[in-house]
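Hi there, hope your week has been kind to you so far. Do you reckon you could talk me through the fold, stretch by stretch? Thanks so much in advance, here it is.
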Amino acid sequence: MCTSQLALLQVFFLMVPEGVWPQPSSMSGAAPTPSDVGPASPGGTLQSFSEGSETPWPVPEISTTGPTVATPSVPDNGTVDLFPVLPVCVCDLTPGTCDINCCCDRDCYLLHPRTVFSFCLPGSMRSSSWMCVDNSLIFRSNSPFPSRVFTDAGGVRQFCVHVNNSKLNYFQKLQKVNATNFQALATEFGGESFTSTFQTRSPAPFYRAGDPILTYFPKWSVISLLRQPAGVGAGGHCAESNPAGFLESKSTTCARFFKNLTNSCTVDPALNAASYYNFTVLKVPRGMTDLQNMKFQVPVTLVSQAGSPLLSGNTCQNVVSQVIYEIETNGTFGIQKVSVSFGQTNLTVEPDTSLQQHFVIHFRAFQQSTAASLTGPRSGNPGYIVGKPLLALTGDKSHSMTLLQSQGDGICSVKRHEVQFGVNAISGCKFRLKKVNCSHLQQEIYQTLRGNTNPEHVAIFGNADPAQKREWTRILSRNCSVSAMHCTSCCVIPVSLEIQVLWAYIGLQSNPQAHVAGARFLYQCQSIKDSQQVTEVLLTTVVTFVDITQKPEPPRGQPRTDWKLPFDFFFPLKIAFSRVDSQKSSASLILTLCLLVLGVLKLETK
């Protein structure tokens, strides 16, 4: 009897963790008391504090949310060690002052720092190693290491064993350095203080998407980058240092301001077309290692001749207003062809003259068919994608439908905004009236509102082919009615254009495709008398997209017959059979039920 009691006592000591003792009113298998388990720390890690002189260890991370525990109470034992035994307290940075969340700072004088601080800084608590398994797998613990059972927020009980003397607590001692071993340590662990990564780094064998494109100026033997100036700041000033990315077709717009255009007209390289093609483009980056080999260089060819800036009287002629690069690539073989075209304008020499420039870089595959290149990018395949350009057709040429755009002074600009599918928009600008007859003025304003391309059709889908007329729908349009105005000496001009687009989703509900059902142009006009001295008029354009999708009704099945009988339906049968023999009544009842079931089945089949 004594032997069995000693064995049970030994098992009891193995199953109860070190420093955890059951309360007098609790059983030996109870969870740790509040004084043993601290509050949860960030990341679901708990901190354990054992009573006595034992060194506390952190509780393992059971889940992302720590288990629910009670607020720890202060132990009555005055000999409790107030601070963890750490070789170095790395977060104790203020001598004589308690550093917040530094659980090893002796200046805090806290029995349990975790009860005051929201968390302990890294390195302020002893690291520990825990091995945890599901508690249901453990019948009896005979581990020589401290162990505990914890319950996480999900109610899962984990049996964890604390591994003593964790390697994470090993202290790395500093090496002793003296005159004898100084040179040996410097030679073993030392190296060059400064290294040039550009000189040792070999150029890439080919361009990758987004890489800057290398250019070479033979006249000065200088390697540079292909630039695409972009607007910065509120005024959109041109930033010259913006590099063009390989395979990244982009368009940018920026403004240039000149205090003295007379001096800048023939001197500023940004106004001269020659500065945009007097270089060669490297096919691949490794071409910079052999600049004398022309097979790695691609010259920039002119699509049409562009004149140099010329100051003639009070006008600066042949000023570059638009630059368009067409770059053909062939995969890892790099750039095969580069062409450039220009748009030029004339500037009047005035104080604080401004110029708006437009830069376009377009990439396309080498040996791409001409028909495919003229088609342009799709706005969806097949259905439109919200935010993509709304495709229009003029004759046999496809283009994007556009809106008015104003310059810095509010005057209508040659450059226009693209109409984006599904995005309602409004824009406006000031149009300066010229001293021309009424018909010419009307045509000029109509062209300004619609754009130079004058769209006639709109694409039904985002991948419409210009050669297939059935993939386009005609735009309904009606100009202003002159007869409606009761004025014989008035000039009726359009001042507003509203573009209404009706669209809808079609196809599968799991993959609907947006298509355009119809579009129309609505003009609002006003009359101007010849006697009025009107110098400018405000023009506006509005785009409205209307969703006319008709969602189908959800499918419905045939109604099912729901047979319900009153609760006392068999009451007459019970009364009739209660007076006869039990066996006969049972047989009669079963027969009656069978007849009823057969009748119900026949009705359902009909």
User: Anything to note?
Assistant: The first helix runs from residue 2 to 15.
